[in-house]
Amino acid sequence: MTAPPRTSSEMIPMLDLRAQFETIAPEIRAAVEEVLTAQQFVLGPQGEALEREIAEACGVRYSVGVASGTEALELGLHACGVKAGDEVIVPAFTFIATGSAVSALGARPVFADIEPATFNLEPDQIEARITPRTRAIVAVHLFGLSADMDAVLAVAEKHGLPVIEDNAQSFGASCRGRKTGSMGRLGCLSFYPSKNLGAYGDAGMIVTSDEKIAARLRAVRNHGQTGQYLSTERGWNSRLDELQAAILRVKLRHMGEWTAARQAHARLYNSLLADLPGIVLPRVPPGRDHVYYLYTIRVEGRAGGYTRANDRGNEVRSDLVQQLLKERGIASMVYYPVPLHLQPLYALLGGKPGELRVSERAAREVLSIPIYPELTREQVERVAQEVRKAVLEN
Ligand SMILES: Cc1ncc(COP(=O)(O)O)c(C=O)c1O
Questions:
Q1: Confidence grade of residue 318 (pLDDT, cut at 50, 70, 90)
Q2: d(CA 298, CA 309)
Q3: Atom of ligand 1 nearest to the CA of 203
């Protein structure tokens, strides 16, 4: 069945998984058929093959499939020795799972601020938060861009702390020639359907070159079993199933072309929006490679601390830009409107507005606009044109 033609007035969504499926449907159906024929659904050859392929893609020796990105973080932190009563330093501007994985172990997330230009952990913020209870540091590679890993690793090394990379959003990105996920003690991937490499359900993976950690993770994801019905520690039931693994293997083969398409769209947005006053475009520091899970602009307003005006001298606000875009058929999203230290979940930790100013300001100003491989040049141009109008009319 072919899809109806897309018209220029059609709504442009944040992501169009149906459009992607149309391009790979026969391959996906064949892969699913293979699993159905084999009738092996958990911990089988597809999962093992995917683990090898992802390890190679990330430049690590081992990888361990798990049930989600959240559990990749939880199991990964556990394998690095994080336990109840410990503290783990995490950036405040991220998806809630980065913090809740720490909390799930009974440990306490200690929130640090971010760099304004990249939205990633500010390395200079780490040291002041290290206490005798600090057990690990989580660096998130947000929106498709690596954190400043050399600087993060330097602080971690000085204090003998492991770095866990939350690579849920940046599979395939790199920092000075090294792939995200391969630089810390271990890296955690999410294959949630909307991710650049997304399954057709929940799935995740941990990548590492540490043999002992990999072996422990293999046990821990499967009830702590190290032999048949022999458990050496309390574990989880967190396994990546064969259907998801088979689907992910198909999609992995397309990642090169899909990432290149995302990067081409980003370049086009960059050129079409470069001169627009009142907004700030994504910045990629030298030596880093952005894979554009999201294309996130900042819409600067008075609330952010200083006034940046559009051509007519008006203050520009992200919520108004978002509303105008919606009226003109362009989806946009705020990732993330509430930093972790101000989440109700963490009220007991005593976070106060004004404590982590860069994160709080980012939460007010960010606006992500559609970016996905299947967007056409015309669609990117239409989005850019509507962003321009919305900002100038705001
Ligand atoms: C930064 C970050 N960390 C962790 C996760 C958790 O991944 P999952 O949804 O696969 O549990 C996500 C994804 O949603 C994420 O964006």
A1: confident
A2: 13
A3: 10
Distance 149 CA to ligand 1 centre (A): 20
CATH code: domain of residue 43: 3.40.640.10
Q: Looking at the predicted structure, is the pLDDT value of residue 315 above 90?
A: no
Least confident of 46-55, 72-81, 84-93, 274-283: 274-283
Domain end among 191, 224, 252: 252
List ligand 1's pocket residues with C-beta within 6 A: 68-70, 94-95, 97-98, 140, 166, 168-169, 190, 192, 202, 204
Does the pLDDT value for residue 304 go beyond 90? no
Global model pTM greater than 0.90: yes
Residue 365 domain boundaries: 255-393
* Ligand 1 atom at shortest distance from the alpha carbon of 142: 1
Atom from ligand 1 closest to the CA of residue 101: 4
CA angle, residues 111, 371, 284, in degrees to nearest 5: 55
Q: What gap in Å lies between CA 281 and CA 298, rounded to an integer? A: 7
Cα separation of 122 and 125, whole Å? 5
Residue 188 has pLDDT above 60, yes or no: yes
The whole-angstrom separation of Cα 209 and Cα 217 is 12
What is the 8-class DSSP label of residue 282? -
Q: Ligand 1, residues 15, 102, 119, 192: which to mutate, most atoms within 8 A of Cβ?
A: 192
